[in-house]
Amino acid sequence: MGASQRRAELLERQRELRARHDALGGLGAEPPYGPGQLDRVFSGTDELMTVVDELAADAARRRLVLTFVLLGVAALGAVLVAAGVLSPWALLGVVVVLAAAIALWLTTRDVPGTGP
Amino acid sequence: MSADASGDLARVAAGLRREMGSKVNTLRLQLTQEMQRIDKTAEKRAREALARLDAADARGDALAAEQSDLRRHVDRKLREYATRAGRLEGEIQQIEGLLRRQQGHVPVDLDSVPPELAPLVADVRAAERVRSTIMDDATRAARRQEIERFEQSERELGETRQRALGVSRSLAVRKAGGWAFRRAAAAYRSERARMSEQEAEVAAARVRRDAAERELGRDAAQEQAYRSHPGAAVADRLAAHVRDRIDAAVADYELFPPWFTTVLGHRPASTRTADWREAAVQVVLYRITHEVTDRVVALGPPPEDGHRAAQHHAVQAALGQLDE
User: Is the ipTM of this complex over 0.90?
Assistant: First the structure.
């Protein structure tokens, strides 16, 4: 499923959840609510959270791919410096790219839906 | 006055001044020497007094140590004599008992009751059986605590549910993907996990609460049954009978059975006769009520728990007070 489809699904779930919340408060009910009403709201929220988690997992996968690309760029830069094609100052750029790759990889950890 | 006379007077005055000065110096020297001598004498006397005090202290310590040793010795001797006296008393009572047995006396039977009191005893035993099923205070408090714990768990779950509902409302209205939405998503995840844990806890607590309520209901019914049981009211009549029986046995110099003498001796002590009799009544009542037939151990084996254990403990405490 593409990112735009997921985004559309997220909005759809959010609309549905809003409707369920409206139904919960719209009936003039005051807390404590009936277990059936609450279950409907919580199941709607859980469905929304599933889509949120899937979106987060997709983003994390994309960041992981970008991490590998950056690692490749850093490695290529290091090889070119070693071969004398690039000046040693280019190593600073390699370090910066490496740091960016690590930072990006760190953001992909602990994302729901990407775990084992 | 001529000038010569004035010069003479001045010389005389100067000579007198010198002489006075010399005498004052001599007197000062003598005074200083005298003061030093007095100081030395006072110091010497103080040293002597201190030495005398030290010696007196040492003598006092020695006397205190001797007194302490003496007291310990006297205490030990007193305990020895008390033990010997107790042993002799026991032996005398044993001899007396043997003589009485040889003369054909038999120990008084305190375990049985006259036939006219048999229905009374049956009632007391039946009431006691009902009473033995009643919870003790600690168990009852534990069951009430189970009920309170369930209510507390349910209250906490309600609070978590309210928080989760609030966060869910934020998720429904905030812009999807925005900062507030992401924060609400994280909060919902945490509240939802807590809610699941608390739901499991409430389910377990509900099972325990239901069981506790059933047990408390049964306990209340048993307590009511005990209160309305005829045996609960006639225990005093049985106690009066046992008291009369013991009084008669003491008055007639009857032999008491071995289980009785092991805990109460053969005769009441003259100083605590009333306490002795009440303890004896409690022991006999316990044996009759719980049908203890042990010939040596007055109260039989100690029960594990329940009302009978509490009674056992109370009788033991009454017996223990007699030894104090």
Answer: no
